[in-house]
Amino acid sequence: MPSSRHAPVIGFAALALIIGGSPAYAQKLIFSPTTTALTVGHAAHSSLPKYTKCWENEGLDIDVVGIQGATAGMQQIAAKNITFANVGPEVLMMARAKGARVKAVYTYSRSTIYRAVALKGAGIAKTEDMRSKTMGAIAMSTGAVPYGRQMLQAANIDPDKDVKWLPIGEGAQALLALKRGDANVWFAWDTAVAQLEAQGAELVHIKPPYFEDLIGNVILVHEDFLASNKETVAKAMRCIAKTTIFGLTNPEKAIKVHWQYYPATKPEGDEAEALKKARIVFESRFGGYSVPAGVKWGENLESQWRGVAKLMQAENLLPADYDVTASYTNELIDEINKFDAKAVAEAAKADK
Prior knowledge:
CATH topology of the largest domain: D-Maltodextrin-Binding Protein, domain 2
Strand content: 5-15%
CATH superfamily of the largest domain: Periplasmic binding protein-like II
Number of domains: 2
Structural class: alpha/beta
Order of helices and strands: HEHHEHEHEEEHEHEHEEHHHHHHH
Shape: globular
């Protein structure tokens, strides 16, 4: 929480009125981003729901606890130790194929968050250049690894025999590993890559030909929790929609709010320089949050899920008879969207 001298005041009343409701806590819930580096790009499901008091006013008591890696997040959801987690659809479908009773209730990022990058001048410009090289990852449990394996297989590179894998962390540690040649390629997610670029790192982005067809993050819950807590899930996701609108409408305020709750994420330098760097990270994630015309906040599109599944099945990452529609549900989407999006945007815009 921010200290009292950093407590949000200006513009808060207007947002509170838009979000509405009254606290009536029933149980402690945990929302786990599958990273421990909660950058400004993660503001919509960390700092902004706290600042706007949306979860509180919906009667929800939610803690945000980062977990390192999508596999770890999936395991914690399956074990019912946490309530919500955000992962890539690839990770969710592979877990369901193995019997995990988890389901996506909200498509969060409309484009994949995963990235494959190499240092400029390293001689790696396309997937085919990765053969016989060392693939770096933040951790082997992250969703970027299945993304990387799929990418390699699509280029006829065996991810188990034709390359080596090495966990190299993120931030300065990952950049040093790339510079030393410990790893030649880094598979990470958008905000982690943007953090390096904000610090001046020159990176080459390598994309598979199907890149634009991939969904990004989805938010999942255990089926047992969903079955008996539909109203709670809808309320929690409604707040994600509202705070996403806040961030898209007023990025600078969203960034400053995030710094209040997570001061370690503020880049070094004066305010203007810090904002410039943070904006790169912020837009790397929020850029994929906008919904296309005719699509509701959080709505899962079968065509997108089938597209991802088809690519995975082609690389033997999913069974041929996998039921894609069992991976997600749209049963709460109408309830999630029961709010005045225009009013939320206007309140966010007025919050200086």
